[in-house]
Every structure is written in C-alpha cells, then in structure tokens.
Request: fold
Amino acid sequence: MALHIDNDSLVQVKSLRAQSDGVFINDAILVGTLFDSGGVAVTGAIAISLAYLAGSNGNYEAVIPGTITLVQDASYRFEITSSNYIFQTELWEQAKIRTG
Reply:
C-alpha cells in the first residue's frame, strides 16, 4: 500500500488463508480504517469495505479516497479487521506527494 496525497490509494490483501488448514478464505467480511500517528481515525477513511476479487484465491481490495486530508511524510496505519473470521492486520505507510 502506498499513500499518495490527493490521489486514491489501493489497499490489497492477497491470498488470505485459514491458519488451521491453509484453505483460501473467499468469504471474509473485511473492513479497514486509516489512523494517524496519534491513533485518531482519519475522516473519510473510516470503515472502508474490502471487496473480494471474484475468482481469486483470497484476494481483497479497497480504495482509500484521494479526497482525505493527509500530511506530507506523516505516518499512518490502516487497520483491517473481519467480522466473520478472527483476523486483524495493520499496514503502515508515510504520506507522499506523487510525482511523475
């Protein structure tokens, strides 16, 4: 995941599998929220649903909209949870201005 100021940012979970047997999970309900370095949820990036990519093996995607307010070089955490599986992960990034 890369966070670009004033640009949409793609979040991906790839090959989500059950820890017990390694089977791909294709029916998870995943939701993510972007937090700043102080732990405050970023307005406009709260409870973003990650959609399962049909026909994939446990792949999910979501878009963090480019309309949110990010601070150059500030650190952000995108926390993903599931309501129907025991799953939580965090992705850390610094906001950058996209060039080129």
